[in-house]
Every structure is written in structure tokens, then in C-alpha cells.
Amino acid sequence: MAWTCINCETNNADNVIHCQVCSVERYFSWNEVNLLIKKPSDIPIISGVNQQELKKIETNLKRFTTENKKLRENNKELNQKMKDLQIFHDTHTHTLENLQHETNELSKWNTMLKVWLGIMVLIVLFLFLAKVNIAIDF
Ligand SMILES: [Zn+2]
Questions:
Q1: Which of 30-39, 83-92, 105-114 has the lowest mean pLDDT?
Q2: By CB distance 3.0 to 4.6 Å, which of 21, 38, 99, 129 could disulfide with 10?
């Protein structure tokens, strides 16, 4: 943006402070001063800070995204393990129930056999005694 000298009205380049013809110092209007204060000083600092903040936020976001991904993977893995354990538990509960049932059946048979054995012993004893009695009678 070129500027016009207030003394000789020469158009000077933006990067020179003194007029190239009469060497009068560049005159800044109030608006130009305001623009210079706002633009070259404040905004680059703010945008610089923002740039840094943005980088920080971006880094944090990346880190959190990675962590989130990891956590989701862990969660998936744990869910799978839970499912496997549930299946394992169900299968074994079934097996355990079957074993319990079989044990009960065997226990019943065992008791029945004991009772039968007792009855048989009594019958044999009775017959033996009867035979002894018969033998004595004769
Ligand atoms: Zn001039």
C-alpha cells in the first residue's frame, strides 16, 4: 500500500518512512495508526499464541484419540474375554450339574446295593440258621 506525501504529494512505497523526493516523514492518519497497532503487532501475537495453542490442542487431540482407540480395543478384548468366560462358565456349570446328577444316581444305587446286600446277608444267615436247625433236628 503506497502512501502520499503531505508535502509534495509524491507516491512513496510502503516500506519507506521518508518521502523519496522531499524527505518529509511519512504522515500516518488516525485510521492508519489504528490499523498498524492492530495488524502488525496485536494480531500476529494473538495468532501466534493461537497457533501454539492450536498445536497443543491438536497434539492433545491426537493423544486422546489414540488413547480412546486403545481403550476401545481393550474394551473389545475384555468383552470377548467376558463372553469366553461366560461360555466356559455355562459349559462347566452344565458339566458340573451332570456330574452332580450322576453322583446322586450312583449314591442312590450305592444305597440300594447296600440295602440289598444287607437283605441278602440276612437271608443267607436265616437259611444258614434254618439249615443248622434242620441239621440239629435230624
Ligand atoms: Zn514529499
A1: 30-39
A2: 21
